[in-house]
Amino acid sequence: MKRFLETGNFAITEGAILAGCRFFAGYPITPATELAEAMSLRLPQEGGVYLQAEDECAAMHMCIGAALGGMKAMTATSGPGFILYADPYGWAIGCETPLVVLNSGRVGPVSGITGAPGQGEFYLTRYPTQGGNFETIVLAPNSAQECMAMTVEAFYLAERFRMPVTVLADQLITDGFEDISVPENDGEMKEMSFRVWPRKINQGPKFYPPSDEIDIAPVVLGHNTGALCSDWTPTEEGYDIEEVEAHHKHAYRLIYKVRNHRDLFSHHYDKKFMSDDPDLIVVSFGTPSRVVNSAVAKARSQGLKVGALRLINLWPFPDELFTARSKYLVVELNWDGQLVREVQRAVPKDSKVHFLGICGDLPTMHDLLTTFEKIIKNEPLSRRGWELEAW
Amino acid sequence: MKDRIEIVASGFGGQGVVRLGQIIGETAVKQGLHVTMLKSHGTEMRGGYVRSQVVLSKDLIDSPMCESPDYFVALSSAAYKRFKDTVPEEGLIIYDPAFVDEIDKGLECSHKTFPAKDLSMKHFNNALFANTLVLGRMAGLIEALNKDLVLESMLEIIPKFHDKNRKAFQIGYDYADA
């Protein structure tokens, strides 16, 4: 195991290479530029290909091309680039192309603030393209080390489900430095619970079965497979067909291959101080969860019965984690409240859900502890003159 | 050492604030510690606002935020004003008087001046070595850091001018408070 002080961007690059990624196309954007830089250095060393595209839309289409050629591929960006993936993301979902996409969140909308963290794409990663009739898989790490682990996992899931998988990080972890350990052999990868699924080639003649089955080898063009791929509804053999019943079968597959096999990744969450029915459950994902963990530990030492629930698998949303009748506080790096809406939907009817939104920086322990105390004492929340409850 | 050491450095883009944090972090990794270092900055890489927050600990680090820094290196007046109130009583602010012209005498923490820019001009006729001078000073002040490993990490991370950087590091390390 090698130990480094490195950025999350570096950790993701190494994770991708460990998972077998040998193609990267992207367009530079803070805070994912250093990932492109690292890929441009590392991929040629591993016999892979790095391409700087003319824009994000082209970059992700190039990744689809590489995946259809039989390679494991990934691209990386931030919010302003992620929105340009809308077209190729739809292609990758529809053509069932395994890919990994990294979105490192900064402050939005539009260019917003480049060198500061945000979590404004919680819903965008659920609906990254038009048309509906699909599920997405989104994983949200909270450290550089976990960035590596979740990148490896994203490649694994992408292969088994034949679809793009998004890793949703933020500026603080991709740009920030941390001590990370990089495994050097299969044994060490196993020790770190990294799972790798090999790239397979579908030899046909059935390429698009109308079922919820997973582990069907991806479609690869050429290689004597006889496979076809387009943006239209495919028949089982891969021919185009524009017809509602066939499209319904295709969409059923896109939705239920994920919904019916969630057990493959539903263990991706983290609970702290949750075993004694806490009076307040603090829900978060990504970097803010680390301050939440520190604040919850501190609150416990002060006698407040608070627990922390961190989501790693964001989509499909893990409703099953929200069965406790309790008070909830959702902490997010945005001011509009996104995750909080989903939590409100998932909790038992008589639970009260509160929101603490901060953007461009992490919440402080002081912010969190004051908020915990007020909620537990049923005092109204307010901060810097802003009404917290208006989300 | 303490369970957790927090170090904040802030100034303008181009002063080497991020490099400074990175070298301290790399040293700590070599010493077998856990490290986090957050950096935040404006759009401009030069001239804009930059901050790095380093946490060192023997244990895994949850919050990477420096909410009560043990050491705060202020390399601009704006940075000083923004973070001075976060430094606790037992904390230390190290500032360069070339950038921070007025200090808050009401604070309970200690202050140390370190004229990095002037020293860099005096010894090298160039302001470029100010951050290495600060690094040397930090290596002298932060007991948890092993001086030789700081130097080794610096030479790994800074690609050029090794002789001058070595010299600047030593001048900073040997600097005695007036």
SSE layout and pairings?
The complex is a heterodimer of chains A (about 400) and B (about 180).
Chain A: E1 2-7, H1 8-18, E2 21-26, H2 33-45, E3 49-52, H3 56-68, E4 72-77, H4 79-82, H5 86-94, E5 99-107, E6 113-117, E7 137-139, H6 144-161, E8 164-170, H7 171-175, E9 177-182, H8 186-191, H9 244-259, E10 269-272, E11 280-284, H10 288-301, E12 306-311, E13 313-315, E14 327-332, H11 339-346, E15 352-357, H12 365-376
Parallel strand pairs in A: 2-3, 2-4, 4-5, 5-8, 7-8, 11-12, 11-14, 14-15
Antiparallel strand pairs in A: 1-9, 5-6, 7-13, 10-12
Helix pairs in contact in A: 1-2, 1-6, 3-5, 10-12
Chain B: E1 4-12, H1 17-30, E2 34-41, E3 49-57, E4 71-74, H2 77-83, E5 92-95, E6 110-113, H3 116-124, H4 130-141, H5 147-157, H6 162-174
Parallel strand pairs in B: 1-4, 4-5, 5-6
Antiparallel strand pairs in B: 1-3, 2-3
Helix pairs in contact in B: 1-4, 1-5, 3-4, 4-5, 4-6
Which features does this protein show?
heterodimer, A: 391 residues, alpha/beta, Rossmann fold, 2 domains, 8-stranded mixed β-sheet, 21% strand, B: 178 residues, Pyruvate-ferredoxin Oxidoreductase, domain 3
Structure summary:
The complex is a heterodimer of chains A (391) and B (178). In chain A, 33% of the residues lie in helices and 21% in strands.
- The chain-level structural class of chain B is alpha/beta
Succession of helices and strands of chain B: EHEEEHEEHHHH
* CATH homologous superfamily placement of the largest domain in chain A: Thiamin diphosphate (ThDP)-binding fold, Pyr/PP domains
Estimated helix fraction of chain B: 25-40%
The CATH architecture designation of the largest domain in chain A is 3-Layer(aba) Sandwich
Distance between the termini of chain A: 45 Å
Mean pLDDT of chain B: 94
Measured on Cα atoms, how large is the radius of gyration of chain A? Answer: 21 Å
Under CATH at level 1, the class of chain B stands as Alpha Beta
CATH-defined fold name of chain B: Pyruvate-ferredoxin Oxidoreductase, domain 3
What is the CA-based Rg of chain B, rounded? 15 Å
Shape of chain B: globular
